[in-house]
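TODO from last week: model 3-isopropylmalate dehydratase large subunit.
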Amino acid sequence: MAGKTLYDKIWESRVVVRDGEEDIIYVDRHFLHEVTSPQAFTALKEKGRSVRRKDKTLAIMDHNVSTRNRDWNGAGEISKKQMELFSKNCTEFEVDLLDINHPDQGVVHVVGPEMGLTLPGTVVVCGDSHTSTHGAFGAFALGIGTSEIEHVLATQTIRLKKSKNLLVKITGELSSDVTAKDLALFLILKIGTDGGQGYVIEYSGETIQKMSMEARMTLCNLCIEAGARAGLIAPDQITFDYLAGRDYSPRGDEFNRKVEYWKTLKSDEDAFFDKTIVLDASEVLPMVTWGTNPGQVVPVLSRVPDPDSFLDPEVKTAARRALEYMGLNPGESMQSVKIDKVFIGSCTNARIEDIRRAALFAKGRRVSSNVTAIVVPGSGRVKRQAEQEGLDKILTEAGFEWRLPGCSMCLGMNDDYLLPGERCASTSNRNFEGRQGRGGRTHLVSPESAVVAAILGRFGTIQELQKEIV
């Protein structure tokens, strides 16, 4: 009999009821935000139900929050109403809420891990696609819909059909100018935005083992853009060191006992995977998207592809439409593409490591006069840490705006958005049409590449930046 994968082990440890093709799974941690929860709370009220495990539930304001100020009116009337309703619901149902004035408020997928609320071997859910971020800790973490949010609030369980297992093994060394963001985009380029459909991805290999927790979170965050249900990385000493001493992590002897259990959370050597993909990290270059989905991506030093170069008719048609929307031409050098705005932030790239890297390359340089660049820390804690290290001063002296925590320009749902035709180098996770504002043109990049774009006023490389005379 074949061994078990990490995903198999977590699933089997959390099955409450087996029910045909679907199982009822226990949920260890439920995160809420203001956009996807209102209907769920309304349904609870109508049915006279309460929140079953308030101690396993945490609400955080992030999507509608203004990053310019802490004014409830800051992001407009609709945002204000959503946040006020969220606050009212959390008060009524006695759910802990980090509102816009809480010192630890921030993007849910940054706040949860840094507070020690995400632990190996657990099931984590949130009404947000990029809940997969938490899989970096060896947790089965997935985004859920409004009706499922209601079900979890009422029962602390969720009904799910088990996905297949996909192993992505990454070997070799990443170049010094290549990040987890570039690796994630490279994977999506190779397998497509539907390559992970029906699967839970487990990332493994020597490259992964050397990654920081921040980098692992970036990688798992983007597995959704490859179509996967979730992404996982087996916990190791890097994971344990990250969790030690955090607010909600186990303490003392309990922590040591947990670590011994967490060490068992890895796929068996003879585990069966439905599919395996092997990538060589040394082949990955700094990447930038040219189109309107994360799979439409090329190396920064490359050119915009010709739609006629694609064999699949649907891919060819999608490429033509994307180029028309993005205002680009086949064969155009990505290095010649000028930008208007830069956004460094989001649940993909707004952790302290991301801010440090951005500051490293911004130091002593200046943002192009034609570019507006903002840096949005992922949480109050990230913001305070960055300020203690003087990173905010480095960035503001270089011409970047230093903002308050929130989802910001990742999506056009607050007061940070693109105007029609504006082009943005963004460290977020989606470049769909209108994602950052109606008619806005989004190019996904790493924090390093975003800094380069901000300073050069166009896409380029770290090497080009280092040649610039300061």
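Done. The first helix runs from residue 6 to 14.
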